[in-house]
Input
Amino acid sequence: MNSTHVDAAQIARYKRLQFTFPEQTLRGKVVLVVGGTGGLGAALVARLLIEQAIPVVGYRSNEVRAKKVKSELESLYGGTVHLVRGDISNSAERKLYIDFASQFGKEVQGCVCFSGDPARANFNELQSADLSKSFNDNFVGPILLVKEVGEHMIANQIPGSLVVFSSMQAVGLFERSLTYAAPKASLIHACRILAKQWSGRHNLRINIVAPGVTVVGMAESSIRSGKYDGYIERKDVCRLGRPEDVARAVRFLLEPDSYVTGQVIVVDGGLSLKA
Ligand SMILES: NC(=O)c1ccc[n+]([C@@H]2O[C@H](COP(=O)([O-])OP(=O)(O)OC[C@H]3O[C@@H](n4cnc5c(N)ncnc54)[C@H](OP(=O)(O)O)[C@@H]3O)[C@@H](O)[C@H]2O)c1
Output
């Protein structure tokens, strides 16, 4: 019996070693980047501008930084950064993100949620409020955002890619990271559940990026203080992470015809392998 799922013409091309690797596949496509004004997010927005995609860039409250990032990225890379302000812990503001991004004439084909908080609570005096806040910032807001964007894409039959930000601390066990790492680990598990629910029926994918110690963004002041120098001096990693390392991983996952879902890409130079 012959399979009805095989494209004979395609197989014939492969037999002739004719493979296709399309380039600039995000050109003209709308990508919602929540937290794209932050240290890591801005590098992805630069990458999207270089590819002539349409980045719709969300931030929570730091309007001064958002406007500066917009004007500097536009002048360096060309194109337009469409800014939108909204707190993803608020349901109406999550909807606003989807409505705003949908107004560009083309449907949202990707959503990346960089939003997160370092949850710097005093470990020895840990309170329930510290854990609740971290769960809200690092789990509840991001997972509801991607669930709602994913449901919007399913309802409108839009194939695409969702990417959520966790941390190497959710993958390796780093002492005293409980408040930050536990919600980030929950985020991985929840995204993989969504990936399982959505796979097979519709080409909607959801994956997770887990960065290590990266020189910009929320880790910058700790890095500058020398807190992580030991990782390099002990040769746990060969260098500190860069925003381009992270942006490249996200871009891989945003590839429109990708076959990858429910996965965690750890971008940490191998640090979590040694934790
Ligand atoms: N940098 C690192 O070394 C590192 C390492 C591991 C994991 N990560 C993770 O990577 C992600 C990005 O980190 P980053 O260093 O780029 O952070 P960042 O520089 O602090 O930027 C955070 C971005 O998210 C936005 N945001 C925060 N809470 C939000 C909310 N409730 N609703 C909407 N937007 C919100 C911020 O907007 P405002 O500026 O307006 O508040 C900002 O645009 C985070 O999830 C972080 O946990 C970072």
Notes: The first strand starts at residue 30 and ends at 34. The two ends are 51 Å apart (CA to CA). The CA atoms of residues 230 and 236 lie 8 Å apart. The mean pLDDT is 96.
